[in-house]
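Subgroup meeting minutes
Present: P.N., E.W., G.H.
Scribe: E.W.

1. P.N. recapped why we're keeping a running log of single-chain structure predictions: easier to compare across weeks, and new members can see raw inputs and outputs side by side.
2. G.H. added today's entry (243 aa).
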Amino acid sequence: MFTIFPALVDGFCSESLLGKCRSTGLLDLRLHDLREHTTDVHRSVDDAPFGGGAGMVMKPEPIFASVEHADPPRPLFLLGPGGRRFDQAMADELAAIAAGGGFSLLCGRYEGIDHRVREHLVDGELSIGDVVLSGGEVAACLVIEAVTRLLPGAMGNAVSPVTESFGADGLLEEPQFTRPAAFRAWSIPEVLRSGDHARVARWRAAQRLHRTLRYRPDLVEARGGLRDDEHRLLEEFPSVTYP
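Output recorded in log:
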């Protein structure tokens, strides 16, 4: 990964699941400081834009020099607003690439990056959404975490990536409960204490549908709408609500 703030990314990726994966060697994260390939005493990585305008633009020289010196795994993606929208499907794709040899990320800063980097150095661009950030580091951390947790052996429970939001059925995850069974005026649904595993599985499937229809109906539409068996599930198990 190429950035002018390697410590920012290193700190985030040293904690929790990512830190564990790095310590076991499952995640091989190599951070390259773009300033190491500057040629002036100030270690400048930016300059004023040609034609005038607000802000500063990252220079092509240190970026090209850093990438060519490191010879990183390809593809190399620039984090920026003009790229393909990063989602769970792309996380799956990148996890397969990571397992086969890896990929690389380039973080921009300031007003942007010299366009020649986009045209002649990177292989593509990734966007985490229609939002403006001060740089690509936070976006890169998001990509790294989303991809790493999909690698075989990253999570203790191999079923988790399948059953959580945007998993195999493309829906949001169902509501989750833990002890105590009763908290203030709210008790967990009785079905979860029934011991009937088949009924619990149907309840969870129904709640995934209820929650997705309420908050992300577009995900149901993308699947072609509700099937007949799903309509029956919704009738059998009402949505979890509290007065």
